[in-house]
Amino acid sequence: MNKLIKAAALSVAAAAIVLPTFGTAQATHRRESHSDAWAAGAAGLVAGTLIGGAIASQPRYSEPTYIDPEPEYYEPRPVYRARPVYRPVVVETYGVEPWTPEWYRYCSQRYRSFDPDSGTFVGYDGMRHFCAAN
Q1: Are strands 128-130 and 120-122 parallel, antiparallel or unpaired?
Q2: Where is the chain membrane-spanning (predicted)?
Q3: What is the pLDDT of residues 8-24, one digit of tens each?
Q4: Is 107 exposed, middle or buried (0-12, 13-18, 19+ CB in 10 A)?
């Protein structure tokens, strides 16, 4: 029913456009009969009906198609971590053991900022360092 109403409305619109043009043409030819104008109007009405029906019968939209993409799964790469190598730490002493009178003497002569209570001195970087006698 909806298509029929649309086709009729388009036909009336086509006739409304075509018929006034024949009226002006008729005014210039006063003596001719009115049958030509009616035939042209009917032809316009039929053409409008056919064109309107063709336009109204076309689908408005197509149903959207959803394509579900296949998810792409990748196996994670194995992570190889190197095991830490533990090496024994060798502490070498150079003759003077810490906290001995020789060590106190060496560090207090070498560093003016030597603190005998903590065994540290203030370096040029402003940080405290432990005195290691060589």
Answers
A1: antiparallel
A2: 37-56
A3: 676 677 666 766 665 55
A4: buried
